[in-house]
Amino acid sequence: MFQRRHSQSSISSAAALLALIYHATVRNVRKTSGNAVLGLLSNMTQAVVMVAAFYVMFTVLGLKGTKLRGDFLLYLMSGIFLFLTHNKTMGAVLGSEGPTSAMMKHAPMNTVVTITAAALSTLYLQVLALGTVLFGVHVILRPIEIDDPAGLMGNFLLAWLSGAAVGMLFLAMKPWAPGAVSLMSMIYARVNMIASGKLFVANMMPTFILAYFTWNPLFHTIDQARGATFINYSPRYTDPLYPLWVSLALLMIGLMGEFYTRRAASLSWDAAR
Which burial class, exposed, middle or buried, applies to 89 when counting CB atoms under 10 A from its CB (0-12, 13-18, 19+)? Predict the structure, then answer.
């Protein structure tokens, strides 16, 4: 009642919002693991174990020769890191704090900040893990050559954006049907083990099988990432703009749904979480 109100310009308001997102992102990173090094090692371990498992499997089955020409380890990493980034971002956005969270009692906080912080914290950890693993392979095992690093990073960011968009859509539906959304997100993550195409090369797949994969924006980003990674591979059946438009559409639908859901926020939702 007796507080003095200060008017802020658009620039100062934007700076305050960015500062709030930064601190919320740092909080999310530290919430995952109290030690920053342990958090990075955890992300690296998951990726390294998955790469090693598929490398051994393809070696034992003698399937390494059926893939595109080039560094087979780089082929695996280009699919697995994008797959992990997509799924982890989807899970982080879905699990972000909603309008009934205790953090929302603080005046500057809102759901946009928590959702953005959840997505950015995952991106931060995944970029660090990717850079560290690539550096380790380059120094310890053998030199790594990437034909178009900028294109590879662009598709990596597209995988992250599409994961955030899918998570946003699930987050908007979560308060209305938490059990069903939890099941759908789990099924989506499991389906992506195959539908992401991280173990396949789109150019070598029969046309009638491609129809089961081309709906997935992650399939396009992984195939395009391999086109940027290897000089002798040119994607013919995937579109670099498809995951971008799908992600933007899902983001808009998710934001509208989240805004509508926020207006009907109830503390009783917390009991269903």
Answer: buried
pLDDT score for 144 = 85
Question: Tokens representing 12?
Answer: 């100062």
CA dist 203 and 237 (Å) reads 7
Task: Tell me the C-alpha distance between 79 and 152, whole Å.
Answer: 11
Confidence grade of residue 34 (pLDDT, cut at 50, 70, 90): low
Q: What does the DSSP assignment read for the chain?
A: --PPP----HHHHHHHHHHHHHHHHHHHHHHH-SSHHHHHHHHHHHHHHHHHHHHHHHHHHT-GGGS-SS-HHHHHHHHHHHHHHHHHHHHHHHTS--TTSGGGGSTT--HHHHHHHHHHHHHHHHHHHHHHHHHHIIIII-----S-HHHHHHHHHHHHHHHHHHHHHHHHHTTT-HHHHHHHHHHHHHHHHHHT-TTS-GGGS-HHHHTTTTT-HHHHHHHHHHHHH-TT---SS--SSHHHHHHHHHHHHHHHHHHHHHHT--GGGGGG-
Q: pTM of the entire structure?
A: 0.86
For the residues of 150-170, what is the DSSP string, one character each? HHHHHHHHHHHHHHHHHHHHH
**Crossing angle between the packed helical segments 178-195 and 217-229, to the nearest 10 degrees:** 30
Confidence of residue 90 (pLDDT cuts 50, 70, 90): very high
**Domain range list for the chain:** 11-265
Helix axes 10-32, 36-61, angle to 10 degrees: 60
